[in-house]
Design brief:
The chain is α+β, with helices and mostly antiparallel strands. 24% of the residues lie in helices and 29% in strands. Strands 5, 6, 7, 9, 10, 11 and 13 form a seven-stranded antiparallel β-sheet that branches. The protein has a two-stranded antiparallel ribbon with strand order 1-8.
Length: 178
């Protein structure tokens, strides 16, 4: 019996030492004290239908690496639309005990990616210590409100219009002071 227990403990130790870590991608856990990170549209409503969320690994040099799979937001009732559908994220090449930094991003699903989304937002960076035996929650993740990013043409027009307005204001000032 003792030998069986010893072998079982050795097997668990080996699994712990060699298994990859994974994160429990949830934006609400328990009664809200552990993880409560709602995501809202610019108008204040929950993200809900038509939006995608993803976790990104923050590398030491500051670049972001997408983690898969992405997920969508709940749609069962208005109170749940700010929260993602739960999904486990496996981190290949990691070991139990590793600490990783992640950031959550949300964007319009139709846009295809965060970079091309006209409505998008991102969370704070959080550190997660991985554990091989069970998924780690995103403790410390903070919710956010997505913003409307102007289309590049709109941004150019705004810049050009602002420059012309400043030029006209300067000419008016110069003409009033001979």
């Amino acid at each position: 019996m003792n030998r069986l227990i010893f072998n079982w403990l050795c097997l668990l130790g080996c699994m712990e030492a060699s298994a990859q870590g994974y994160i429990d991608f949830k934006t609400y856990v328990g009664d809200g004290r552990e993880v409560n990170a709602p995501v809202f549209r610019p108008d204040g409503s929950g993200a809900g239908t038509g939006f995608t969320a993803g976790l990104f690994l923050v590398r030491a040099e500051g670049s972001l690496e997408p983690l898969f799979p992405t997920t969508t937001f709940k749609t069962s009732s208005p109170q749940w639309t700010p929260y993602v559908r739960d999904v486990p994220i496996f981190l290949p090449g990691t070991w139990s005990g590793d600490v990783v930094t992640v950031r959550m991003r949300a964007w319009e699903t139709a846009a295809g990616s965060y970079e091309t989304g006209l409505i998008r937002g991102e969370s704070n960076d959080i550190q997660v210590r991985l554990h091989a035996g069970f998924p780690m929650p995103l403790i410390g993740l903070q919710g956010f409100t997505m913003v409307l990013v102007p289309e590049p043409r709109s941004g150019v027009l705004l810049t050009l219009g602002g420059g012309l307005w400043l030029l006209a204001a300067r000419r008016r000032t110069e003409s009033n002071h001979p």
